Here is the input.
Amino acid sequence: VGRRRKLIRTVMETVDRAMAFSTRDRKVRKREFRKLWIIRINAAAREHGMSYSVFINKLKLANIDLDRKQLSEMAINDPNAFKALAEKIK
Here is the structure.
């Protein structure tokens, strides 16, 4: 711990490694959030008798342009609006 703060070569290696991890993890964070949104939408869609893939397909056929983040937030915070949306596309 002490050497990592005081020796310039070790400091530079630590910083380089931290930068590499932060770059990688920005991509991973996007992936993880997308997975979470899909899980939430799937659960909400199944409450209305549809699978996730059928729900998304019907949204596209109805020309409803809501992204997965918006749909996920709607399913959690405004279930009545999500229900109305599900009824509209059935």
In short: The chain has a mean pLDDT of 96.
